[in-house]
Amino acid sequence: MAKIINTKYGYVTPQEAEIDAHLDKWMKRRAKQHGAFSLDKNKKVVIKNERC
């Protein structure tokens, strides 16, 4: 029987924990490449007219 460890996804085998860590890194890298975490890029600047 394989040793079970506790991760943020629950109790899994060491092989499953390694795969989950690899997928997490890959997903973060893909999201960064596609601009998922750059919030400044998609912001619109709103200019208010103060003379109302």
Low-confidence stretches: none
**Neighbour order of strands in the largest sheet:** 1-2
State the shape. Answer: elongated
Task: Name the structural class.
Answer: alpha+beta
Number of helices: 1
**Order of secondary-structure elements:** EEH
Based on DSSP secondary structure assignment, what is the total number of beta strands?
2
Instruction: Quote the average pLDDT.
Output: 80
Q: How much is the radius of gyration in Å?
A: 21 Å
Largest sheet: 2 strands, antiparallel
Intertermini distance: 74 Å
Helix content: 25-40%
Give the DSSP E fraction (strand runs of 2 or more residues): 5-15%
Describe, in plain words, how this protein is organized in 3D.
It is a single chain. By secondary structure, the chain is an alpha+beta fold. It has one helix and two strands, in the order ββα. The longest helix has 20 residues, at 14-33. The chain is elongated and about 75 Å long. The N and C termini lie far apart (74 Å). 0% of the residues are buried.
Kindly list the characteristics that best describe this protein.
two-stranded antiparallel ribbon; alpha+beta; 1 helix
Task: Lay out the secondary structure.
Layout: E1 5-7, E2 10-12, H1 14-33
Antiparallel strand pairs: 1-2
Compose a concise summary of this entry.
This protein has one helix and two strands, in the order E-E-H. With 52 residues, the protein is of the alpha+beta class. Strands 1-2 form a two-stranded antiparallel sheet.
